[in-house]
Amino acid sequence: MTQQHTAIGDLYYGIPAIRLKFGRYEAVALPGNGANLISFRDNETGYSFLREPDAESIEAFKQSPSVYGIPFLFPPNRYEDGKFLWNGVTYELPINEEATHNHLHGFLHTVRWEVEDYGSGEQGSYVVMNQHVREGHPMFRYLPFTFTIKLTYSIDEFGLHQRYVIHNEGDQPIPNLFAFHTAIRVPFVPDSSPEDYKIKVTIGERRELTDRLLATGQFQPLSPEEELMKTTGVSPYFASMDNHYTAAPQDGRNYMELTHSKTGATLVYDVGTAYKHWMIWNNKANKEFICPEPQMNMINAPNRPDLPAEDIGLIALAPGHIFETTSRLYCVTPNKTKS
């Protein structure tokens, strides 16, 4: 290990953190705050890719952790009236979004995660965090399934690598419904303007949502700007977005690209083809950040047994089985073959 390659316990505005460094890159994970990967930076260019709190907004982060960094959602998004139908049983989740009378975003983005391991070497710097869900866990009260989730974040010369693994340790199939509520800073280049950026996402069709932000199972036509978003790119703030799309991988990849026109720097979020959907939210086009969220399931999928499970991402994991998927965030810059 060299001084450039480190993984240390640290504080992030007073919050216990694991800070990773490898060459030009630096990342910070907050195990006690939902395993949120709160920071990913390129120290050579000064690029800061994620929406981070500062000293003045750290308390706001603690109150609303889902709009900073990369929160992990399980199960993700909204469930009508808190109902969660699974294998013929209806489970009751707490109503935590009063405006829509829905359950929102599950249980694991706010709880403490165990740090299983962290370290650094010539191949990269990493942290492994886990969550053992079983009797006595706060989530088990509502969804009584026995499983372990491991999240690994590592950085190397190719950027930030994200690994999700779930192991069903119970005796019945469990719902493998998850998402990452990834908040990308726009602009990420210092002293640049939000108007300097274009975003491309491998979306397919736009799902229709009710006034309670629940999926109807129907589709809506894409606007001209949305057609550009899946081809040549469009401003990330062309309209206020809280939109739900099917994923449509291109050239074998499922990804977002955010390009700064003046430098040509392109942030790539390659999320893998396991995800069935994207959520895209830009907080009323406030020109601060955009959340391209890779999501396994359609909103409210467990409560729609009338729709094909494969199409809506209603994915079950059999007893004893393991599911794994990986993603990567990296920046392509002109005249460089490596990020």
Automatic annotation (TrEMBL):
UniProt-listed Pfam families: Aldose_epim
Cited InterPro entries: Aldose_1/G6P_1-epimerase, Gal_mutarotase_sf_dom, GH-type_carb-bd
Source organism of this protein record: Paenibacillus ottowii
Protein's name in the database: Aldose 1-epimerase
Lineage: Bacteria, Bacillati, Bacillota, Bacilli, Bacillales
